[in-house]
Predict the 3D structure of the following.
Amino acid sequence: MMEQQHQVDRVLNGDVRAAARLIRDIDDGIPAAKTVLKALYPHTGKAYVIGISGFPGVGKSTLVDQMIQQFRAEGKRLGVLAVDPTSPFSGGAMLGDRVRMQRHGTDPEVFIRSLATRGHFGGVTRSTQSIIDVLDAMGKEIILVETVGVGQDEVDIVTTAHTTIITVIPGMGDDIQAIKAGILEVADIFVINKADREGVERTRNDLNAMLEMNDSNGTWLPPIVETEAVRNRGISELLSQVENHKAFLFGGDRKCLRERLRKRAWKDLTDTIKETVTTEIIDRLQALPSFDAMIDGLVDKQTDPFTLCEDLLEEFYAGKEKDGVPVAGQKDR
Amino acid sequence: MMEQQHQVDRVLNGDVRAAARLIRDIDDGIPAAKTVLKALYPHTGKAYVIGISGFPGVGKSTLVDQMIQQFRAEGKRLGVLAVDPTSPFSGGAMLGDRVRMQRHGTDPEVFIRSLATRGHFGGVTRSTQSIIDVLDAMGKEIILVETVGVGQDEVDIVTTAHTTIITVIPGMGDDIQAIKAGILEVADIFVINKADREGVERTRNDLNAMLEMNDSNGTWLPPIVETEAVRNRGISELLSQVENHKAFLFGGDRKCLRERLRKRAWKDLTDTIKETVTTEIIDRLQALPSFDAMIDGLVDKQTDPFTLCEDLLEEFYAGKEKDGVPVAGQKDR
């Protein structure tokens, strides 16, 4: 506990090594990390979180790289979190790319992390939010979160940002339709990257057509920004649109901002509950002497997962009743 | 219950309308569907499930379309499930594509469904398995499951197939590395689609290099098949490799097969538990009079999600203790 208080203090002072260790603990699911996160929580909520999402190949990482460069030119302290196995930031890419991205690696005001977790129960979005909280608590003013725009978890992550940027490229055709299905309603800004390619006009028209259909969000009309990230073109306009969206959120009665923060808090809470309960139940389940027989029973169709689940939960709750004495596995209580 | 027994019988007789209704109910999360699924479960496990995964743009749907064609030529009864918002099968694509795919729409032995669900708690993989079970119970011999290969849920889905096909295209570069991170260990067959494009050799070398590093799986070496799905080239070879893999699984002591079925059963059970528990707890949570105040407390940093979660779960279990009387929300018990 003493040690944990020490870690809390160090993170709050912006200590990179303490923050890095905490993030590693979160990623590994170390229980002690929770105590530190609890203590950090009151110190969060100051950073401005920008989500950048898009399919593999649209150039998100280059875009993020240029955004870092520009925010640094403005003197901002930056946190970057890549939740994308294809991101060079997460070590998923070829060496050349990785080296290029590491031009910010020696800048003490840029703290770049990636989320390696794949498969902790209910863990991806929960871990992401915890890491954002760490970056926030350590004093980063801007936090960039890069996710690949496919998969429910990945969509959930960007929806809780202050500003969500959806990146597309010309000629995506079908994929634009997919964005429509899953992501359109959460986009605050659209970026058409690789805007030197053929088909920019059509992509812009497609996006506009979708935006016109979607009249539910009457207050903020997502702008469409053309960029060529590799040539640093359009990045200034993108950042000024982020600024516009920020002004919109923080202007007036701040109802939209409050709604967004409430949505994030709700997601945060349900993720925590989901992870806590399922981890507890499933740990207990795997420790049952009857575990192997249960799985065999399913494979051999002697029972079905729904009936088995009902039985197991009944026993689990009965175990809870006995105040922490694990009785699961004994039907005859 | 009578009506549900009737639906069970109709699905077992291969009735398309009954199956379609059940799948819709599963997708919508209708509780009555569970009763039907329980009754169908003993009749499942006969179909051969093939997972086809890959990033958007690699041509998965065209590949699936050609595989359907070929399996039909062999007289096989087919089920197809698209768990991919970008798939033409799931209506995510342009009209032209959708029409082309519907050439099998009038064939009574091909039953094509898509999973529209995005966001039911823990629902995507659980719903997918349930729909596979429906297709299986209605007598389909081969079930093709198409998923986009990004996101934990999407990866989980293909890992439970009998044969998992990972599709790439030449020139993917970085993305191949991403596959390495997430999917390599689950691939039974690699397809290099659009094999008329430049860079096939390099892609093949990249895959081979990865396979050589991954010596943990000594028993089955995933073959690499080149295809041009739009020209129907390589599909026969792909199907004969599927046949080889099937022979491998069903030959000898069937240890690999059993392990795969056990893994699927375990995933099935944990998904069911996860969904059941979290739905129950979160429904109860949302019904609390103190719900709004709780969320505000989080936004205003008066509490943190971990502490709140501990309190809520304590109350939830206490409520369970009183045998179904919901007491959650009353701290002073």
Q: What stands out?
A: Strands of chain B lie at 48-54, 78-83, 110-114, 142-148, 163-168, 189-192, 224-226. The longest helix of chain B spans residues 255-286. Confidence is low (pLDDT under 50) at residues 90-100, 118-122, 323-333 of chain B.
